[in-house]
Task: inverse folding
């Protein structure tokens, strides 16, 4: 979780614009412009649309940057199709209700995963043990549907055994719909400012609207497959990389 007020203060002192992607929290749970951002973007395909059936995006700006943004928009001729606009408007009508459900399910599932033996860490800022929990609590009024889980080290075959046989969790990049997703991710390949050095396999989870008990059961079965396919794990002992 970024300390946006501190970043904005440092950037403004040097005349640098601050752009924030607010797709995870949406304006319901986070207001970047009020915290010092100059421009805010949303992948509306995710939470705004809410049904994974339209391509949509938004960009907002403060008074200082809005004229430049508006000129660029006109010159590029950027527009959203009527059908996608209709689907986004439909999704916005239920955004508040959906975000509350996403938040409740994601927090509960993240807390449950913290107690599972194959899990090393759960990265969810609403959890008290998260290193940036204090910043999240100060600046946010809620949390989104996506978080990450770091599993004990295991070869790729164990990851495949886990994710390939889920009953409820699908695999997909564009989260935000009503279906839950679980996707292996590799931050060590894309991180630039700070290298990723954690040992283990990282999963990105988007929590949808399925029954929470069913989601826990699906993950529990997947974790059992993960440990069974892990040659580095011995029952009764900690796994070693």
Result:
């Amino acid at each position: 979780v970024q300390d946006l007020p501190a970043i904005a203060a440092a950037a403004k002192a040097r005349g640098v614009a601050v752009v924030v992607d607010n797709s995870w929290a949406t304006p319901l749970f986070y207001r970047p412009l009020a915290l010092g951002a100059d421009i805010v973007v949303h992948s509306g395909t995710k939470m705004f649309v809410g049904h994974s059936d339209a391509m949509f995006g938004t960009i907002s700006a403060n008074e200082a940057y809005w004229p430049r943004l508006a000129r660029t928009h006109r010159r590029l001729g950027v527009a959203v199709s009527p059908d996608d606009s209709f689907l986004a408007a439909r999704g916005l009508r239920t955004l508040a209700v959906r975000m509350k459900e996403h938040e409740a399910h994601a927090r509960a599932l993240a807390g449950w995963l913290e107690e599972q033996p194959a899990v090393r860490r759960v990265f969810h800022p609403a959890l008290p043990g998260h290193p940036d929990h204090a910043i999240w609590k100060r600046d946010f009024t809620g949390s989104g549907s996506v978080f990450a889980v770091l599993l004990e080290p295991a070869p790729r075959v164990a990851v495949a055994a886990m994710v390939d046989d889920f009953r409820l969790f699908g695999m997909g990049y564009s989260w935000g719909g009503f279906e839950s997703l679980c996707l292996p991710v590799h931050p060590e390949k894309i991180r630039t400012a700070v290298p990723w050095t954690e040992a283990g396999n990282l999963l990105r989870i988007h929590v949808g609207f399925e029954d929470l008990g069913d989601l826990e059961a699906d993950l529990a079965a997947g974790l059992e497959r993960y440990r069974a396919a892990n040659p580095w794990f011995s029952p009764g002992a900690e796994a070693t990389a």
User: Anything to note?
Assistant: Confidence is low (pLDDT under 50) at residues 237-241.
